Amino acid sequence: MKSIKIKGMSCQHCVMAVTKALASIDGMENVHVDLKTSTATYEETKPISASLIAEAIKKAGYDVVE
Question: Residues 37-50: pLDDT tens digits?
Fold first, then answer.
């Protein structure tokens, strides 16, 4: 499992938006977004660049904590 910190989520709608954005990336599975910790965990079935993940999160309206 890999994880990434996300900034800007405040409700369950935010969680669903980030989950949908990450799940749409080819090669990403078992996405779980936790509002309390502002963290998304996931598994990769093939290598996925960090910039692609960050771009998907930004398109959903949130930011990645570096």
Answer: 999 999 999 999 99
